[in-house]
Structure formats: C-alpha cells, structure tokens
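HUMAN:
Could you generate one sequence with tokenized structure?
ASSISTANT:
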Amino acid sequence: MDYGVRLRYFRSQVGISANALAKKIGLDPTTIYKIEANDSKPSLGSLERICNALGITLAEFFAVD
C-alpha cells in the first residue's frame, strides 16, 4: 500500500493543501509531507482523522481500484 499516493489522490479530490489538512486535524504539516513521501506511515488514529477530514472512510482509503 502506497500511503503517500493514496493520500495525495484523496487530498487532490477534495482540493485541500497538505498544510490546511494538517491544521484541520491537528497534525504538524511535516507529518503529512512525510506520509506523502512514504518516509512515514500514519498511526491508525491519525489515518482516521485524515480520512474524516477528507470525507472518506478507512475502507475507501484502502480500497483497491
């Protein structure tokens, strides 16, 4: 699973910047950048907050197209 690609895809669908997303969910923007660069994997709690902010479910995030 390429978390970075998935996160960028859903973020672009919503039209929100990495900084705005981080601020919305209370994470440091560098955390979002690290996830998108595949330098870090999000915790389940962080991923749930990211998905909620993007208006998707965890199932949608992990769905294989």
Notes: The mean pLDDT is 95. The longest helix spans residues 3-14.
